[in-house]
């Protein structure tokens, strides 16, 4: 059950407003970028001189995030391979097999270095843009 508002806070008065196409388009854009559910809420805050907060989304960030996600997945799979190789090294008693696993581990670590080298330009780009 809704709480009854007192008379000072109740929205009792209906006001009609006419605007031209340019102002209407501007208000619609502002409404779409804000958290307001309808035009009345937005106009009420504008008339009452309250702060209207809008949200913007940077589309270029989506490409960067896709690349970061892809590199993260690759690094996770390489990390899994490294963990398996280290586990096999600890379980193996044969020197020759240990040497082969160590070489495989070295190759995996080189891949990690390769992928982390890809990350630095992306992180630098983000830092320039957002910091």
Amount of helix: 55-70%
Number of strands: 0
Q: How many separate helices?
A: 4
Helix-and-strand structural type:
mainly alpha
Mean pLDDT: 83
Unreliable stretches, pLDDT < 50, 5 or more residues?
A: none
What does the overall shape look like?
elongated
Total individual domains: 2
Q: Secondary-structure element sequence?
A: HHHH
Largest sheet: none
Counting copies of identical and different chains, the oligomeric state is: single chain
Strand content: under 5%
| Radius of gyration, whole Å | 29 Å
**Separation of the first and last Cα atoms:** 47 Å
Pfam family, one: MobC_2
InterPro entries: MobC_2
Protein name: Bacterial mobilisation domain-containing protein
Please give a structural write-up:
Helix 3 packs antiparallel against helix 4. The chain has 2 domains: 15-56, no CATH class; 60-130. It is built from 4 helices and no strands. Helices cover 69% and strands 0% of the residues. It starts with 20 loop residues before the first helix and ends with a helix. It is mainly α and 131 residues long. The protein has helices spanning 21-33, 39-47, 60-91, 95-130.
């Amino acid at each position: 059950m809704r709480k009854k508002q007192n008379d000072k806070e109740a929205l009792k008065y209906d006001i009609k407003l006419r605007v031209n196409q340019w102002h209407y388009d501007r208000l619609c854009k502002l409404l779409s970028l804000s958290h307001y559910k309808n035009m009345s809420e937005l106009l009420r805050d504008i008339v009452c001189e309250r702060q209207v907060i809008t949200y913007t989304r940077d589309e270029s960030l989506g490409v960067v995030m896709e690349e970061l996600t892809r590199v993260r997945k690759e690094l996770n799979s390489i990390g899994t391979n490294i963990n398996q190789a280290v586990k096999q090294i600890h379980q193996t008693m044969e020197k020759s097999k240990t040497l082969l696993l160590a070489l495989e581990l070295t190759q995996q670590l080189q891949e990690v270095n390769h992928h982390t080298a890809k990350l630095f330009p992306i992180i630098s780009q983000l830092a320039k843009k957002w910091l």
